[in-house]
Amino acid sequence: MEYRVLLIENNRIMLERLSSVIKNTKDFELLGRYQKASDALWQGGVFQPNLVLLDVDTEENTLAVPQFCKAFPGASVICMSSRWNAENSSHMVRAGARGFLIKPFTGEELVEAVTTFGKSGMAVTSDVMAFFSPKGKSGKTTLISNLALSLARKSSESVGIIDADGQFGDMAVFFNLSPQSTIVEAVRDIKFLSPITLNSYFVPVNEGVSVLCGTKKPEQAEMIEPQALTDVIRMARSLFRYVLIDLPPGFNPTSIAAAELSDITYMVAMVSGSYEIQHMQRALEIFKDWPDYQQRVRVVFTRVEPCDSASRQHIEDELGYPVEAILPNEYLLVSAAANNGRMALDIKPDVLLTHNINRMADKIIGKKRIRWDKP
Prior knowledge:
The protein has 18 helices and 13 strands. The chain is of the alpha/beta class and 375 residues long.
């Protein structure tokens, strides 16, 4: 596709620099350039652009976003700024902008931006879900990886996984990925990133699911600072319709920061004895500090046998809290899938594990399902 570009940049030196980038990028033609938004709105219509790059470092230009979307209905409006601001970016996307770029940018970043944002634009709304377990070995990585695939297929929306499970994150193993960049580099660089450059840190699993892989070495977990992780999550909201975060077990600054920023926190425990209910009860007590914890905190139990409505009711009675979902023991299936970089949903789409994960996806998307023990 060839892009006919209208460029609006308040700073003259930056205007020259960005003009040069556009002119030297294949399939991009600079039709007109302006320092004032009002001039571009008045004169730019004669060019019939299909791409508008609008500097929003000034209040005048920020307020003009809806006017540009109306004046150039056949063009994608991508906002440019010297720094990323989640709140401002969300406001501009709601006003009609398709995406956001940090300036100055390279020709490669420009191409990536129009390719990424040209599909569906930046996410106006997103659901962020944190997955936490009171103790380790809960089966949450299995749940997250398969749930992400189910969400992408059922919604046809983009899904991002952030592996923040510090020392022992294994999403890369589950999906058989070899990432060049991980969450360590993302939190290190986040102050200098925009959504389009952060996107390059995610490894695509397929067309719908991408993963920000966990640390390569356990000692690197100390490099994931809570504030930087928070910034990564906020920026990921603009890239993906659904963001799933795999958190380390137990309460620590990282898990607390991610949970507080999330729309929903799933607490996951594996039924293997009599202590899981007690651990879950103690964890729920901590979340009760949230005034809306009953809406935001949901419970999932894995390896439930028999995995039927009676077992679910028994767990709810013991726990004294609603159980969002129960998953059966499919250890051999999950192990075989992970060893081949595949998911249980692909290998055995008709087993109960797959059905119950699909039901979770339906509920997240908004479809109503009732029974958990029958397909």
